[in-house]
Amino acid sequence: MRMRVFLTALMMASAAQAQYFGKNKVRYDTFQWQEFATPHFRISFYDRVEPQLAKIASFAESAYDELARKLNFQIPQPIPLIAYATHAEFEQTNVIVEGIPEGVGAFAVPARNRMVLPVDLPDEELQKLIQHELVHIFQFEILFQGRLGKALTTNIPQWFMEGMASYLAQDEDSRARAVMRDAALADRVPSVGENVSGYFAYRFGHMVFAFVESQWGEEGLRDFIFEMRNTLTGAVDKAIKRAFDLDVEEFDARFRAWLRKQYEEVARGRGDPREFGPAFRVEEGIRSAETSPAASPSGELVAAFTTYKQDVDVALFSVPNRRLYKNLTRGFTTRYEYLIGQLLTVGPDRGRDLAFSPDGDRVAVFARSGRGRSLLLLDALRGGVAREYPIPQDQAMQPAFSPDGKTLAFHAFANGQADIFLLDLASGTVVNLTNDAAYDAAPVFSPDGKYLLYSSQSGEHAKLFQLELARPEHRVQLTFGPGDDEGASFSRDGKALYFASDRDQGVFDIYRLDLATRTLTRLTRVLGAALNPVPVVTKEGERVVYQAYTKGRWQLYLTDPSQGQEAGREEMPAVAPAREPFVPAVTVAVSRDKIAPVKGHKLFADNVQVAVQFAEDQTLISQAFLSFSDHYGDRRLNILLESVSGYSNFQAAYVNLEKRWQWGVTVFDDRSISWPPMPSPGGKCG
Q1: pTM across the whole model
Q2: Which of 265, 326, 419, 610 is the most buried (most CB within 10 A)?
Q3: Which DSSP helix (H) or strand (E) runs through 637?
Q4: DSSP of 545-610, one letter per residue?
Q5: Rounded Cα–Cα distance for residues 273 and 257 (Å)
Q6: Are 34 and 49 in contact (CB under 8 A)?
C-alpha cells in the first residue's frame, strides 16, 4: 500500500513535463498558521493570505453548495483547506514531503481529507481550482467511505478521479478543450478500459463524465460514481455494466460517436494550421514541442522554447527556411533549475515567455532559482547566460524589452495582486506599473516606447488594455466583446495589433486589429488552438509567426496576414464598459472571533505501506512503513519494521521540517547476520 495524492496538473503533455518532480525541498519561508471556521471548512492561513480570506471562504462554500446538491451527498466533518499566498510558497508545503513542480496547481490527500492550494489566480479560476480539489474530498468520502485504508488500496483510474473533478468543477479553458477536440477529430480517443494517465487523463475523463450526464442525466452520473464505490479493485467495466448495462466496447463506441457530434459544428470551416501557412521544423523524424515565439529585430530569427533534446531549451529558428538555427541553453548548468515556459515547465497563463532585446544580442527568459525566479539574459550570438537579475516578486514571467533596451516589463505577483512590473536593467530596481486588483499579464511595448499593452482580467474575460508610460494611471481598453484576448504584439509599423482570442466558438485563433480603422482581420481558423502571434519581416513583406496545437503537440507556424479574412470592426464604445468583478454564489463574511491561532501539533496516521513476500528458499520477508504527521506535515514520525525469518529490524525517526534549518532524531535496533566469504576451490576459510 502507498499514499495516494491527487494532484491538479496544469501542464499539457510534453517530453519534459515530469522531469523536475521529486527534487529536494527547501523551506524558505515561515508560516504562522491561524484557522478560520466556516459551516463546512476549517481554513488554515497566515498573514500573507489573510487579505484573501473572505474570498477563499466564499469560493469554498459556493463550491460545497453546488457539489452537495449535484451529488446529493454531505461531508460529515469540517474539511481542512490549507491556503498559501503564492505558488512559490505552496511549493514549500510539507503535506507532501517530495518537491512539488510548478506545473502542479494544487492537491488533495485522503489522510484527514486535506485540500492544499495557492490563491494567486484570477477569481473565477480560483473558484474552479477550489471546486476541483473539493471534488476529490467528495470522492474520498463517497468512494472510500472516508477510510484511509480503502483509499490506499483501491486502484481507481486516474482519468476517473481527475476527469470527474475537472467536469464537476467545469475548469476547462479554451487551451484544455483544444486537447480533446484535437484527439477526437484525429481519431485518437482511447478506451475507458485503458490506463490513461498524465494531462490527457484530465481532458479525456472530463469528456467521459460530460457524455454520461448528457445521456443518463444527473441520476446516471451519480449511479456511475456510486457503482465505482462498489468495485473493490476500481474496475471501470463492472461499474459501467451495473450503471448502464453496457460493456466497455459498446460504451466506447457510443462515447466516440457522441464526441464527434460535439465537435462537428466547431470543426466546420476549420483546418490544420498548415492550411494557413507552413510549419517550422527541427529535424526530420523529431517529434518536439515549440512555444513562445519572439522575433529578432531583423525578423530573420525567432527565439522559442523547444523540447527536441528531451529537455526545455531556448533555441533560435531561421525564418527564411523555418529550421532550427542554434540552441542557446544546451547542456547541464547549475545556474538555475529550469526555464519558465508555459505548458512545458509551468502551467498556462497568458502571453509569451521570451523576448528579444532591441539590439538582437540578448534573449530574455525567466528561470527557477532557489525560492523564486531570476531573469536571464541569454547571449544570442554564443549561447549561455550573459547576465542574471534576481527578481523579488513571485511567479515572474512574460518578459518584454522596451524599444530603447533600458527597461524590461514582466508579469509577477506581489501583495496579493498579479500586476505588470518594470525592471530598470542598469540599476536592477523594480516598480509596479499597474498596481490594481485586476489580473494583469502579458505586457508588450509599443514601437515608439510610449505605451505598454497588456491583458487584464477582473471579471469573466481578459481584454487588451493600453497604458501610457508617462502616466501609468491613464489606461484605455482596446478590445471588447466575448472571449479572452491575450498574447498581443504590435505590427512593425505600430499601426496594428496581432493577438490571440477565443471569441469565436471558444477556440483560440490569431487576429489583426487596425488601430486607426478598428478593422478586425482573422488570420487563422484552426481546429486546436493558435497563440502568441509575432510579426517578422520577410522578402515578401510582413508575416506572422505563431504557435498552434495540433496532433497532440505545439509547433510554430508562419502565416501571411494579407490572406486573412475581415471579421468586422472592433468598435470602441463611447463609455468604457464597467469591469464587473466575479461574484460567487455564496458570500462569507470574516469575523475575527472565528479566527484562532493553531495550538498543538497532534500527530496522526498519514501513510501506510506493507510488503510481504517469500524468498526462493521459502523464507518469509516482510516490511511495514508507518508515517505519522501533524496537520501541515511539518512534524513527522516514521517507523520502519522489517523481518527476515527470525531476524527483525526496527527504526523510528522523528523530524521537524518547520523551518529552513531542519532537525531530527533516529532510534533503531538493527539485527542482521553476516556470513564469511565462501572459500575458493582448494583453499580454506581464514
Answers
A1: 0.89
A2: 419
A3: strand 635-644
A4: EEEEEETTEEEEEEE-GGG-EEEEE-PPPSSPPP-PPP--SS-----GGGEEE------EEEEEEE
A5: 25
A6: no
